[in-house]
Structure formats: C-alpha cells, structure tokens
Write a structure and sequence with these properties.
It is built from 24 helices and 20 strands. By secondary structure, it is of the alpha+beta class. It is elongated and about 135 Å long.
Length: about 800
C-alpha cells in the first residue's frame, strides 16, 4: 500500500495550516468566549456564594446546590452593536459581566431557608420551601441575588412591615456599602418605592451611576422586606432599541425540530421497518457506535447531574438512555446499509477496523480527519468574522453551549457531548441521509438543493451567529464542507473532523481563560486530537498486510448473496425442467392443440406431455405431483421417464397407469403421490380412450352442445396403494369423438385459483368460459381462459402450479 501523500493530501495540508492560522488570529475579535477570563472554578464560586449568603443571613449549607453559566442576551447584543466585537469583548472581560455564574439553592424538604434564629419570629417568615439564586461575575463578586420563599407564618395575607422606612433604608445602605466598600463616588440614590407582596411590605431602593466605557447607566436595585434582604440586582441599562431580536424565543430550535428532526424520525422509522423486513440490515454493525454514544451520554449526564439526588439521577438516566443509544444504533445500521449500496468504499476503513486497529490506510484517514478539523476551524472563523461585518449580525447562545463551563469537569463534559454530536451528525446526516438521497434522487441540482436546505438546520455546538438568516447560511456552508470532505475521503475522516472541530475549539477557549483549573481541562481536552495523531503515526508505520485488502461482508449481504445464488440455481433448474415439457405442438392433422404450465414457485410439480404414437394417434397426459418446489419437480421428471417408457410399448391407458403405479410405488417415498390422467385420441376410429389416476376430470364440450360434461372414471393416485388394489380401482373409458368437440385436461391449480378474498375460480367458471369461447381456435381459447383467471386473482399470490391442455377436434 502506498504511503506517499497525494496531491489532494498536500492541498488539505495547506488548507489546514491556513485554517489554523486564521483561527488563532481571528478568535480574539470574533468569538465571545475571548472575554471568558475565569479567575475561579465552579467549586470556588459555589463556596464564595455560600459565604456571601451566610453573611447576609442565609445558611444554605444543607440545601441542594446547582451552578450554571448564564448570560445577558440584550447586553451582549448591545455591546456588539455599539462598540464592535473586539472592543465589546474587552469591555465584557474587564468591566461588564455579560456572562456570569448563577448559583441556586433549594431546600431538600421542610426546613429553614437560612434565616438566623430569632429572625423568623420577627420577620414572620418560616421558609418551609423556596429557592435562593445568586449571580456572581467570573471574579466571584456578587452582581445579583433573589430570595423566593414559598410560605410565611400566618394566614398568607399581606401585613404591614414592623420596620420603618428609615430602618429599611439603613439596611439597604449597609448592604450597599458591603458591595462597594467606602468608594461610592458617582452613585446616587435615584428613587425609592414600596409594594405589597404575600410575604410582607417590600421596600425598593435604586441607585444609578454612569458607566464611562459603554455609555450606559449602571443601576443597583435593592429590595428589603421586614428588615431582611429580599433581592438585589446590578444591571446596565440599555436602550430598548438594542434589545436582542430573538432573546425570548428559540425560532431556530422550533424550525429544526419540525423541518429536520421530526422528518428524519419519520423517514428513519419507515425505512428501518422496510429494510429490516427485507433483511437488508446488519444489526450488529451499530453496536459499537451505540455503546460509544451510551458511554458519552453517561459522562454528560453524570457531569450535569452530579448534585442531583442519586435516585432522581438514576431514573432520568434509565429513561433517556434507550432513546439515545437505540436511536444512534438504528441510524448507524440504516446509514451503513444505504452506504454499502451507493458507495461501499466509504466504509472500507471501518471494515478493516473490525480486524485490526493499526494499518496504514487507517492512519491516512485519521490524519485527513485532523486536517479537516483545522480546515473547519479556519472556515468557521473566516465565515464568522465576515458575517459580523454584516449589519444586524450578532452572536447568541443556547443553554447547552454554556453547560461545559459549569461542569465539575469541563473537559470531560465537552468530550462526552462532542462525541454524541459527532456520531449522531455523521451517522444520520452523512452516512444515512446523503446515501439515501444519492440512491433516491437522480437530478444533481435537486440533490444539492435538498442537502443545503437540510444542513441549514444542523449546526456545530459552537456560538450561534444570528439573526436566523445568517445562521442558516453559516450552517449550510458548514454542512457543505463536511459533505465535500465525505465525497473526497471516507466515513472515518469525516467522523474525526466532526468530532475534532468542537473539541479543539473548546480546548482553546479553556486554555485562554487564565484560570489554572480550566487550563488543565483544556490541556486534557487537547490531548484527545494529539492521541489521534499518535494513533495515526503508529498506523502509518504498521506493515501493510493482505488482511487490509480483505472485504468485510455483513451478514445480511451474505444472506442476500446466498438467496441470489439459490435463485440463480432455481432459475437454471426451472429452465431445465421446462425442457422436459413439450417444446412444440403435436403435428397430427385433425386436432388443434394448445397448452401452458405456470409453476407457483421457481420450479413446480405439474406435468403434461404429448406422445405421437403414430400419424393418426396422439397420447395426452397431465399430472400433478403432491407438493411444490424441487422435490415435486424431481418426481415430475421421474414420472415423465416412466410414461415415455410405457406408452411406446402399451396401447391401453389403464395398463400404462398400472405399470407406472408399480414403478412409482417402489421408487418414491410413501408421502409422495401423483395424480394423473392419460388418454389416447385415435383419429382413425374417431375415439378417445383414457384412464384417470385420482386426477381432475376431463371437461368435454360436444360440438354444438349447450353443456360441458365432466368425465370422471374412478381411479387412485399413483403411489398411494400397491398394484392389486390400484388395479381393482382404476377404470378405462372409451367414447366417440366428432369434429368440433373440445377437451380440457387441467390440474387443480386452475379451478382452485384464489383471489384476495380467498374465493376459488371453480369448475363452473371454467365451463362457462369453454362455452363462451368455443368458436375460437384452441390457442386463442386457452389464452382467453388464462386471462380470465388472471383478472379473477389479480395480485393475489399463486398458491399452486397451474397447467392446462386444450384439444379441439377439427
């Protein structure tokens, strides 16, 4: 196997180098995470918040704690529009905490919400349940607080405060100095107010101060109730015109769910059911990806629910796991099936991975995936940088985008979430959907248009460019990049790329925070692509042995190949069997003969034959072997040999059938028998002599007659009984014939043909058709009967072989 770089690999390497440089250069002025200078980690923030709460009279040490990162969408939008992105991020880093920590406490059951002993009676608050929230900037300074008690002592009606305005004002001022120390220059008390609430009379005090950097008024609002702090909020007041357009609704999420994910769920379920019924899925192929996603989900769930009660966490995990793991398993199995039909070479490396973990082709694929990571980061940085120059463009965040920062282990949380994202995106939208479209849609322009529309609603787990119109364009271009790379490489390369882009982005944002805890997590996260590169290097040095060229064949393809092989063999057997049936019509003057035989399966057990005894005598035989398929065909062939041997030496149909019964009884198994009718038309004596061995009657329509007779002399099927009983039972019958007489020999597949309602064609319909088409030639007459049977059965499956021989005396 060649190990030299192709021209494509050289081009990818150049683009990757350029992309990484672009990312490093453009990151500080493009992405809001450039303002994340974390000075304390999650545990330190929680401890700081707990200290502040205790100082303000709230002991929350026994309460459930949750910490998360929140952001002010309006403030982020305003600063980006007013100052430009790079200057806005500098302000956010140094003075205006657009992003902040939010620590929440909630009582585990009945109990005190932290009011000090002796204060409850005075305040009238019991705090039997409720919630406390505190917001802190990245340095740990409180910027917001709210206490939400659910109950109070008494009847629940509002009461006047026992504290005077001056007392409440003194409490508010004391808290004001706690926040800012003695340096309160520039602050002025703007207004005061009071309002009634279910917990008492609330007094509100509001200070303002001009903020020179952003031109906004910085406001501090403090609420006091019954001599205690109820809430405070430090805000930066922005004009209403600068409120974020989409801050109160997730239009993108709604569109994504309705137009993409819901559609994919429906398409996936329908195609999965169809393919599994057609035995076109390798169910084992999705097990390893499914297990990887389950492991990743375990990491994500644990890091996000670490402070939840164990049983609640376990219940949530059990409830969500089957959908995530099972969904990925189904989509991978489905995508793998379609991809093998359209371009199996995209899965060649995956097939080799089932046997070995180290081989040169895998190393090349992994390196191409790493190159895609840097190309993707560069493309995303450049697109974001240019988009931010468009009027109205700004960055926004989903709640999931900030979960990593609030995790006890940010690096591990990012790794788990990104693994889930990469496998789901590549399995669903690359492996399945592209192959599905390529197989279904032939027009390239329509194929490309649908891909672009779908990718508009699928984005990387990175900061979201807004408004929606720009976000859709960026998503479409990102998806187009992955699709092009899939066309030029393979599944493994695209999987590594989709996995590595958010991993490297998160690692870089963690490294630039300045906090040792987050930097260590960034280094741990960055170790993942480094390990992939090391893996690729080991693969590159591994020997290229013959196993690399071996082709993996899924079990379902083996079954398909086996079915096709059996089908081809049955086709051959069918063709051979059909050669045992008469190829041409008998050339005897005075009779018009037509015939057909349609097996219910590839090969059947019905049999008919013509024996030209001499120029004026014609032997006609029709038989039906019990059962269908290969065993019936074998005994049909045996019967033909017996008949051909007997008919040349004996004139009597009865004697021929008696001898055939002896031969058949000795050579066939006991559960096998054959019904048969054999007759001889003698044009010299103008007679038909025939005997019937348990077969359907012969139908006779006399020339000019109005009725169709059924000729049914007694007789047992061949192979049921030994010679003496058979001889006693079977009779031979002779009747005269004249011009215009019509004889129909047939098997029960004709009269017992069924439609969807399980109704049979029956003998009466056959008789009526013989009467209706009696003036036609034998060929036209038999074709008309055959059409009528097809119209009757329509699309109902044929349940038995169908054979008929029609003879018209001329």
């Amino acid at each position: 196997m060649k190990r030299t770089f192709s021209k494509q690999d050289i081009l990818f390497s150049i683009l990757a180098a350029a992309g990484f440089i672009l990312f490093l250069v453009l990151f500080p002025g493009t992405f809001p995470e450039a303002s994340f200078h974390m000075q304390r980690d999650r545990n330190e923030i929680i401890e700081t918040a707990r200290t502040h709460a205790l100082l303000w009279g709230f002991d929350v040490s026994e309460y459930k704690t949750r910490a998360s990162i929140v952001y002010d969408a309006d403030q982020l939008y305003y600063l980006q529009k007013k100052l430009g992105h790079e200057a806005a991020y500098a302000v956010m880093r140094d003075s205006i905490p657009v992003f902040s920590w939010q620590v929440q406490w909630k009582a585990r059951g009945k109990g005190d919400w932290g009011a000090r002993k002796g204060d409850q009676a005075e305040s009238g608050l019991t705090g039997t349940d409720g919630e406390i929230r505190m917001n802190l900037d990245f340095s740990g300074n409180p910027i917001g607080f709210k206490w939400s008690p659910e109950d109070r002592k008494g009847d629940g009606q509002d009461t006047d405060s026992v504290f005077t305005w001056n007392h409440e004002r003194s409490t508010a001022m004391a808290f004001f100095y706690q926040l800012f120390g003695q340096d309160t220059s520039g602050w002025s008390l703007a207004d005061t107010s009071e309002k009634s609430s279910r917990i008492g009379r609330v007094r509100e005090f509001r200070w303002i101060r001009s903020h020179a950097v952003s031109g906004e008024n910085m406001a501090l609002k403090i609420e006091i109730v019954n001599g205690r702090l109820l809430s405070f909020q430090r805000t930066y007041e922005i004009p209403e015109a600068f409120q974020a357009p989409d801050r109160n609704r997730d239009v993108f999420g709604m569109l994504s769910f309705v137009f993409v994910y819901l559609t994919f769920i429906i398409i996936g379920i329908v195609t999965f059911v169809k393919r599994i019924r057609a035995d076109l899925l390798d169910l084992k192929s999705g097990l390893i990806p499914g297990i990887i996603v389950l492991f990743a989900w375990t990491i994500v769930f644990w890091t996000q629910s670490i402070n939840e009660p164990f049983w609640e966490m376990l219940f949530g995990f059990i409830l969500t796991t089957p959908f995530l793991g099972g969904g990925l398993w189904a989509m991978f199995v489905l995508g793998e099936s379609y991809t093998r039909e359209v371009w199996a070479e995209k899965l060649a490396i995956v097939d080799h991975l089932r046997r070995r973990w180290f081989f040169p082709a895998l190393g090349a694929s992994l390196i191409r995936g790493i190159l895609l990571v840097f190309i993707g980061l560069g493309v995303l940085s450049l697109i974001s940088f240019l988009s931010m120059r468009i009027p109205g463009a700004y960055f926004s965040y989903d709640s999931e985008s900030l979960d990593m920062w609030a995790s006890p282990l940010p690096g591990l949380s990012s790794l788990g979430f990104t693994t889930m994202y990469a496998f789901y995106t590549v399995a669903t939208f690359i492996l399945f959907f592209i192959s599905f479209l390529k197989r279904t849609i032939r027009r390239k322009w329509l194929f490309a248009l649908i891909l672009l529309v779908i990718w508009m609603f699928i984005g990387c787990p990175l900061p979201k460019l807004m408004p929606i119109s720009i976000r859709l364009i960026v998503n479409a271009l990102t998806g187009l990049m992955l699709v092009i790379f899939f066309y030029r490489t393979d599944f493994i390369s695209v999987l590594v790329g989709a996995f590595g882009i958010p991993i490297v982005y998160d690692a870089f944002t963690l490294l630039q925070t300045g906090a040792e805890f987050y930097q260590w997590n960034g280094l741990i996260l960055l170790a993942v692509p480094v390990l992939i590169i090391i893996w690729a290097g080991i693969c590159h040095r591994s020997p290229a042995i013959a196993v690399e060229t071996a082709t993996y064949v899924p079990d379902y393809l083996k079954r398909i190949y086996e079915k096709e092989r059996i089908h081809r063999e049955l086709e051959i057997a069918r063709n051979i069997q059909m050669t045992f049936l008469p190829r041409v019509r008998p050339q005897i003057k005075g009779v018009d003969v037509a015939s057909y035989c349609v097996p219910a399966e590839e090969i059947g057990g019905d049999y008919y034959d013509f024996i030209e005894i001499d120029p004026r005598r014609l032997g006609v035989a029709v038989g039906d072997v019990s059962g269908k398929g290969i065993p019936a065909a074998f005994y049909m062939t045996l019967t033909k040999g017996f008949l051909q041997a007997q008919a040349k030496s004996l004139d009597s149909p009865r004697a021929i059938l008696i001898n055939m019964n002896d031969l058949f009884y000795r050579n066939a198994e006991r559960n096998i028998f054959i019904s048969m009718i054999y007759g001889v038309i003698d044009l010299t004596s103008r007679t038909l002599t025939f005997a019937r061995a348990g077969h359907n009657p012969v139908m006779l329509r006399r020339s000019g007659g109005k009725d169709v007779e059924e000729l049914c002399p007694p007789g047992l099927a061949l192979g049921l009984k030994k010679g003496e009983l058979f001889e006693k039972t079977i009779e031979e019958r002779k009747l005269g014939i004249s011009s215009g007489d019509i004889f129909l020999f047939y098997t029960d597949g004709l009269n017992e043909a069924r439609n969807r309602l399980k109704e049979t064609f029956d003998e009466e319909r056959i008789k009526n058709l013989i009467q209706r088409y009696a003036t036609l030639s034998a060929e036209d007459m038999l074709n008309a009967i055959r059409r009528e049977v097809q119209l009757f059965t329509q699309d109902a499956p044929q349940h038995d072989d169908m054979t008929a021989v029609l003879i018209k005396i001329l």
